[in-house]
Design goal:
Structural class: mainly alpha
Radius of gyration: 36 Å
Distance between the termini: 50 Å
Order of helices and strands: HHHHHHH
Largest sheet: none
Number of strands: 0
Strand content: under 5%
Helix content: 55-70%
């Protein structure tokens, strides 16, 4: 039997990595020293005047006019956040809900006799619009449905996610059906193999 070759470590890679790390550290230290000295000359420390106030700072305001800092009140913060959130829901929510209802209607009508969701989508108003704008968005790597979702997002950015969910729901349902069929086939394969093994044994 041939002797096993001894395992050797390549020290050149380790030394190269160490030297590169040291070089990067030296460069960072040099940059830090340079910017530190430059900042010292560009922004010198403030000097004190005769009144004890810095030349770079405004003189102190007279007593009674300054407003000291106070800790915020949590009740005011929660009330302000609730008011702003309700204002957003009232203004933007109506627009988003209205556009999603219009998109659902355009995706549903006009109806066809076919029960295929893909054919129904292609025959609907959204499908026709998608076919029209698809040559425009195809060079950017998008299809017609993505282009339609982009058009709806001009009214409100939040509509884009809902539009994509509605337009690509057909593919998700088709994929679920295909996965269900594949799972059924995989579950039936062990039973078929067991029957094929049992038949020759029974004949014997």
């Amino acid at each position: 039997m041939s002797e096993a070759e001894p395992i050797t470590t390549d020290r050149r890679g380790f030394l190269g990595t160490l030297s590169a790390t040291a070089m990067a550290g030296g460069l960072l230290a040099g940059y830090g020293a340079f910017f530190g000295v430059a900042g010292r000359f560009l922004y010198p420390p403030p000097r004190r005047g005769r009144d004890g106030c810095s030349w770079r700072m405004s003189p102190p305001s007279p007593p009674g006019t300054s407003r000291p800092y106070r800790t915020p009140q949590w009740s005011y913060i929660f009330r302000h956040v609730a008011d702003r959130g309700w204002a957003f829901v009232r203004k933007a929510g109506t627009v988003i809900l209205g556009l999603m209802i219009l998109l659902w209607a355009a995706q549903t009508y006009p109806k066809t006799d076919s029960e295929d969701p893909g054919e129904q989508l292609n025959h609907s108003l959204v499908g026709r619009i998608s076919h029209i704008i698809e040559p425009v968005v195809r060079p950017m790597g998008f299809d017609g449905r993505t282009g339609t979702a982009i058009l709806t997002s001009f009214a409100a950015r939040e509509v884009f996610v809902g539009s994509m969910a509605q337009l690509f729901q057909v593919e998700e349902s088709e994929d679920e059906e295909e996965q269900h069929q594949v799972l059924q086939q995989q579950q039936q394969q062990p039973k078929l193999q067991q029957r094929q093994v049992q038949q020759p044994l029974q004949q014997r």
